[in-house]
């Protein structure tokens, strides 16, 4: 990854009567534009996200999605759907007078990148996708109900702890009730447990720094509430919509690199493989010694190689 840099512009974009987004620009002011789409949903951007791109060649745009990061109001679920976010990306593109840009997204960011590209294929120069997530019911069931639980039993025990045993047949729905409780402590306890589950399972080797992130109440509440809101609503999409042949046909001409950790249990490799099967023109790299995180060495190396390769477009 490239060395850390500071943005040369940070600003706000009002996208509705309720929501105002935080965004920043770094790198080369005259460079080829790229937008980084963060995960979660609800995760927000991080300074290290700039480092996937050569700052001499790219005009690097980071945006905190609705309710996330430095965007306001924090953790808001109102007017917060996949299609609202796609409209926001377009508003930001127009605000910055960008005709076409590269799109980079991992995890939920890959979901949003695919949905955006399928909605506006004429605005996308390339796609770099990591840890593919298409929000199918089978994907949610594996991570939040029955799948990853077999690999991380001790973390799973902490995850289910806030939920009464009688309600554990649908963990996403049970968490929905607690994450929207009027009682602050109930809501925050659920938010911390939901977030810790993802942080504990994101890397091949558990990262104590990621676990600590789940204890930060503001981050945990935005991350957990917004994720759960999207998941309980099936991403506001038809099941399997992003993988449908008629949707892939819209983006088949766009150069795409997919980077997937072999041992990713948050977004298992089966989804990346399914995407490759319906989109054989895309390039798929499976990293043999990585989990879900973009920060694992093999994954970050391939992501940077991909952005370097597209910098001339």
Main attributes of the structure:
313 residues; 2 domains; 8-stranded mixed β-sheet; 11 helices; 8 strands
Description:
The chain is α/β, with parallel strands linked by helices and 313 residues long. The chain folds into 2 domains: 9-136 and 236-310, Rossmann fold (3-Layer(aba) Sandwich); 138-233, no CATH class. It has helices spanning 82-95, 108-119, 137-144, 153-160, 171-179, 184-201, 208-213, 217-232, 245-251, 269-278, 297-310; strands at residues 9-14, 20-27, 32-37, 58-63, 101-106, 124-130, 256-261, 283-287. Strands 1-2-4-3-5-6-7-8 form an 8-stranded mixed sheet, sandwiched between helices. Helix 10 (269-278) links the parallel strand 7 (256-261) and strand 8. Helix 1 packs across helix 2 (108-119), helix 4 (153-160) packs antiparallel against helix 6 and helix 6 (184-201) packs across helix 8 (217-232). It is globular and about 55 Å long. 47% of the residues are buried.
> How many domains, as an integer?
2
Order of helices and strands: EEEEHEHEHHHHHHHEHEH
Quaternary status? single chain
Largest sheet: 8 strands, mixed
Which structural class should the secondary elements be placed in? Answer: alpha/beta
How many runs of DSSP E, i.e. beta strands? Answer: 8
Helix content: 25-40%
- Could you report the average pLDDT, rounded to the nearest whole number? 97
Terminal CA distance: 20 Å
Low-confidence stretches: none
Q: Which strand order does the major sheet show?
A: 1-2-4-3-5-6-7-8
